[in-house]
Amino acid sequence: MLNFDIFKQKSPKQRFLLILGLIMFVFYVVLGLAFIFWEPIALRLGAIPQWGRIAIGILLIIYAFVRLLSLSRRD
């Protein structure tokens, strides 16, 4: 589970890096969902088959959660 004590007693630099990490988590999840569900990407990336787009989207979402877990483990 996430430890919400990471928001307490942070220096401005650590707080900025935490917020940047959370923004990047949201970015990767949205990008992964866009690869899976957004139709204009399918039209522009016509060389990639549908299973390839789904695989890329799933990998991006998994990568986002790995980054979130590593972000929560930092001191």
TrEMBL record:
The chain crosses the membrane at residues 16-38, 50-69. It comes from the Bacteria. Keywords: Membrane, Transmembrane, Transmembrane helix. This is DUF485 domain-containing protein. The lineage of its organism: Bacteria, Pseudomonadati, Bacteroidota, Sphingobacteriia, Sphingobacteriales.
